[in-house]
Every structure is written in structure tokens, then in C-alpha cells.
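## retry 2 of 3
previous attempt timed out at serialization; input unchanged, resubmitting
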Amino acid sequence: MGRVNALAPNGPHDPGRPNDTDRPGSPDPSDPLAAFLALRTPEGAELLAGLRSYDPAQELATATRLRRSHPAHLVSAALGQARLRQRAVAKFGAEDAYRMFFTPNGVEQATRTSVAARRAQRFVAAGGVRSVADLCCGIGGDAIALARAGIRVLAVDRDPLTAEVARANAAALGLDGLIEVRCADVTDIDTSPYDAVFVDPARRGGRGRIFDPEAYSPPLSWAVGAALGAPRAALKIAPGIPHEAIPERAEAEWISDGGDVKEAVLWFGEGFAAGSYRATVLPDGTSLWSAGPPPAPPVGPVGRYLYEPDGAVIRAGLVADVVARCRGRLIDETIAYVTGDEPYASPYTSGYEITDRMPFNMKKLKALLREREVGVLTVKKRGSAVEPEELRRRMKLHGPNSATVFLTRVAGAPTMLIGRPIAGPA
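## retry succeeded, writing output
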């Protein structure tokens, strides 16, 4: 859920310009909502449009120039928004990001477009979902994806600034005909008129990430109750949630994008498989699925190839599925590295051909890398306390070749595996 955050400040007042707070009708510079509304005026829109390609390193000079013709409070708000838009490009793409509006928390917590689109597609595929109540909508990332899938959305957030930003984003992208934004406490919303519910509780507090699901805002138990009261529902949760905390009536899905685990979702209702586990890998959009927890995979000696399962596969507890697919085994019962004797490629793994195996020893590794003329070293680790940057520094690399080293355990013993990537799936 979005929370009040001042739009990024620009620094001290320009002493060469009259103070804006002395001007009749000027907004209170400490009021983030007033600062945002000022950006929605024709003057604010024009100022923002001219900042698309500004260089943050030249911000002081840019601010000084703009304050000669615009109020300082408006320049400060516009520069803050310009910085946020530049950050948002990674999640929303340049075309959308430079039309949208953000808060610092909004950029940080918003669902990236690819993941939100995947969720909207699942709602559509479930059938009969024409309207969704998006509770804790934040700046509207999910509401936008749902609307683009043709779904009518009620987007709710209790923070006035966040709700206003979501409303502005719907209008900026031409989706305000499908998205109604309401500033309210989500616990007061009657969701019965809607075909589905989506809940994205706040998982950050004043001290950072919240790991106790009952400390979410609203708590996980309330969100599950809201989901169970709807024909279909999706509930966004932290990827690290323990499997034992997942309700029996939910399908649990973990989603990665570009190799990074982005979120987990609990699905409820018709069209979703209660008690099942799913790992979805973007941008491919392919999924591994299991009707329940799979059996423990076999453990055995390191073979010619090593496979690193995608993080979503690991979080979903589906490493055993990968082991079966590549006809392999784990290198250690506590480590999610899979080994095999045959080449295997899939969207769910990264594969490596192992050239060397040795007990953990920095001096021997350094000698081997010098002999192989390795100048570029990729360090991966599981079950090791060694920091990759520290290891690279101590190796004093030099040469035209590259290699990958895995710092891990094999049958309980600290081990180094050296190899090179093999081709992925065509």
C-alpha cells in the first residue's frame, strides 16, 4: 500500500528569488499533496515536460536557471518528479514512465509492468473476471495492467497523496474510463459487486521490510479473509514467506523476471488449484507446477554439468522437478545446485560445464586461475560465507579468459567448482 512520502526535495531556497511562502496562494512547501497538485497545473506540466532528459549531475545549475522563471516550490517538485521518472523507467519502460507520476515509495514498491501484466493475464484466463477491486493500489501499477487487459478496476488506497497519484496515472495513460480511484481504508470497502479482488498489503514499515505476515498493513489474516470472500482473488506476499504460512485453499505462485525473484502471489477461487505450487519465469512466461510438495530429490557426486535453478523454482520448492527433468541429483541435500552427466537446457535453469573440482583453498584457486589466464571471474555461492568481491580482489586476475567459480558444499564439505556457461534453451 502506498504511504505519504514527500516528493523528492531539491535543496535550499534560492536566496536570489523571493520566498514562495510569502506569495498569496502559494502552497505550503511541507505539504506533499499540495506540491503534487502544483505539478498538475499547466505550468507544472510544461516544466516537467522540459525535464525529461535533464542530467541529475547538473541539478543545481538546472534549478538555478528554472527559478528565474518559475516558483521555487514548483521547480523543486518538478526536479524531484523528474528524478523519480528516471528511476521508474526500469519498471515501467520509458514510454509509460515519462507520462506517469510517482512518489519515492511508489517507485520502490510498485509492481513492474511485466509482472503486473502476467497477473492480469491470469485473471483473464480464469474466465468471468470483468471487474477487480484493487485494494492497497499504491500508485496504480497493477490497476493499469488490469485495465489494459480490459478489466474494470476499483483502485483503493488510504493515503491521499498516493490515491491522487494513482488517479493521475490512470488519466495520463488514457485509462481513467476503466479505473476508479478511491481514497479510503480498504477494510471499509464492499467488494461484493466485483468479480475478483486483488490485495497488495504494505510490507514495509518505519524500520524497513516487515517479515511477520500479521504485521503487514492490512494483516495477512484480513487479506486472506477478503480473498476467500470473493469469487476469485490474488494476494501479493513476500517471496520469502514460509510454506507453512500458506493457506490450504490457495495456489501459491512465485514469479521471477530476468532471473530475479520479484514476488509471490496466493490465488483463490475458481480457475486456480488450491494447495499447489507454481514457479513462473519471465520474460518466457513458462511455469513449473506441482499439485503438492514434491519428494526429496536424490543426492550424488558432482557430474560433468551443474545446473542453477531459477530463484522462483527454489522458492516454490520445485527443485526436485528440475532434478527429474535433467535426470540429475543434488550435490548436497541442503544446497539447491543440481548436477548431471548430460547437457540440459530449460528456462528454469542456468547450466555450466564443470572443468575442475577442489576443496576450498584460496591459494590453489589463485594458481589455477593464473595458469588458465583468467581475467574475468564470475563468483557464485551457496552455503559459503566468502564474499564474491573479496575473493575476486584476492585472486588478482589477469588474462584474456573467463571462468565461473561456485563456492558451495558437496556432501557437506566446503568445495570450489570451476566451469563455464553452456548454451541456454533455443
